[in-house]
Specification:
- The protein has 120 residues and is mainly α.
- Helices cover 92% and strands 0% of the residues.
- It is built from four helices and no strands.
Length: 120
């Protein structure tokens, strides 16, 4: 034990410089590897905000239709589109018939009014 205390007494300056450099290196390592209190608080605020946003998004997703609902809606819309297409064809056919009848009535009216002017 005397040898250790003698060594420390003889090399105190060198040992204190080494201890100070080791402590400075340790503090530098801590500052590089760990965040400051302000940085940590800012990160915690960001995490809290993101957590609230995730909670809000989960609530929004719960209200969205499920895959089966979307499939049923797609089938209904397809059936409605086919029905509308058939109805459109029927309406177009009816319109063409009405146009033909209107043309015949107009033609008949014009013939009748031409015949009346020649008789007068």
């Amino acid at each position: 034990m005397d040898e250790v205390s003698l060594f420390v007494n003889n090399h105190f300056k060198l040992l204190s410089v080494l201890a100070a450099l080791s402590f400075a290196g340790f503090v530098a390592w801590l500052t590089v590897n760990f965040s400051t209190r302000k940085e940590h608080q800012a990160l915690m605020l960001t995490v809290d905000e993101l957590s609230q946003e995730i909670t809000r998004l989960k609530g929004d997703v719960e209200h969205l239709p499920k895959r089966g609902d979307v499939q049923r809606l797609e089938n209904i819309i397809s059936a409605l589109a086919a029905t509308v297409a058939e109805s459109q064809k029927g309406i177009e056919t009816s319109i063409s018939r009405l146009e033909r009848k209107t043309d015949l009535l107009l033609e008949n009216e014009l013939r009748g009014s031409n015949g009346n002017t020649t008789n007068s």
